Amino acid sequence: MEAQSSSGLLLSRKRRREGSNGETEDGERLGKIPRCTVGLKHPAPFADELVPADGKPYERVSMDEAKRGTPPDRPVRVYADGIFDVFHSGHARALMQAKCLFPNTHLIVGVCSDDLTHKYKGFTVMNEDERYDAIRHCRYVDEVVRNAPWTLTPEFLARHRIDFVAHDDIPYSSAGSDDVYKHIKEAGMFAPTQRTEGISTSDIITRIVRDYDVYVRRNLQRGYTAKELNVSFINEKKYHLQERVDKVKRKVRDVEEKSKEFVQKVEEKSIDLIQKWEEKSREFIGNFLQMFGPEGALKHMLKEGKGRMLQAISPRQSPNSSPAREERSPSPTFRLPFFSKTSPPPSPPPHHSGARGYLISEDDDEEDDEN
């Protein structure tokens, strides 16, 4: 009823272009008819809790009519059934496909009971109440049928006013039949959907059985008792011991990783230090050679200082009126006054008065330059 009332409010809309007088211009066209669905704030209702439909005879719609789109107050009623144990994304995708088969769809989902499922298929992980509730909270479902039949009868289809049955096209052999949907296909009421590969309830159960020890240890850590897990006393102790051993292994692995990180950091820092030391040493050696090398600044400074000193102690040049260099007498030898014991040094000539008591010959100057 909630779905019908909500669908009654959703009327088809026209795209209008109003002129200055407010009237609709030519070129009107119908928009898309919204799908009939239950609001997402509440779970889907159970079929036996809804008010029975009126006494009007139910007339099925054809496939062409359903694809074109039906009026909002007459959605296409699509039925999908299953066990839906350990509800997963494969179930949700199948229901989504069933919901999207037609523009205006009311999706009814039938869920088989525990007795029927255990009889024809096997034991389930979830009980029937849990499976009913899981389907009710799927966003694509508008109505849930509890204790659904294994094989659909004409009476069941008429009672729930079903137009089409949605299921994957693979023949479903069960209950002594090669395909339980064979008569639905022959009546033209079958709407195929695609099966999601890679995930199923059987696959999930297979993973749990394959990794049984892992999940038992996981639940023991979370506070479940061995009795609840149907584990013997010896196995319980074994799992606890394995958990302790794994903890020690994890600690050792963590220590190894941390030590590797520490060694790596030390190596990186040592490499940086060595590189910096090499750069500084090269710079120091270069500066040292620049200062004290064969052609260093120190040698040039000494040469320059020696030249200045020689200039300071050398005799002054004669004036321009003095006789030529060739005509002058040879320069006297260098004499230190305090080494002369026999006689005092001769007095310098007038033009060498700046020698301050000693003379340096030009020959000595040349020898000093060569040295």
Automatic annotation (TrEMBL):
SUPFAM superfamilies: Nucleotidylyl transferase (SSF52374). It catalyses: phosphocholine + CTP + H(+) = CDP-choline + diphosphate. GO terms for cellular component: endoplasmic reticulum. Residues 1-11 have a biased composition (Low complexity). Residues 1-34, 313-371 are annotated as: Disordered. Keywords: Coiled coil, Lipid biosynthesis, Lipid metabolism, Nucleotidyltransferase, Phospholipid biosynthesis, Phospholipid metabolism, Transferase. Residues 79-207 form the Cytidyltransferase-like domain. Gene3D superfamilies: HUPs. It is an enzyme of class 2 (transferase). One of its GO terms (molecular function) is phosphatidylcholine binding. Its EC number is 2.7.7.15. Pathway: Lipid metabolism; Phospholipid metabolism; phosphatidylcholine biosynthesis; phosphatidylcholine from phosphocholine: step 1/2. Residues 361-371 have a biased composition (Acidic residues). Residues 238-265 form a coiled coil. Belongs to the cytidylyltransferase family. Catalyzes the key rate-limiting step in the CDP-choline pathway for phosphatidylcholine biosynthesis. This is choline-phosphate cytidylyltransferase. The gene is pcyt1a.
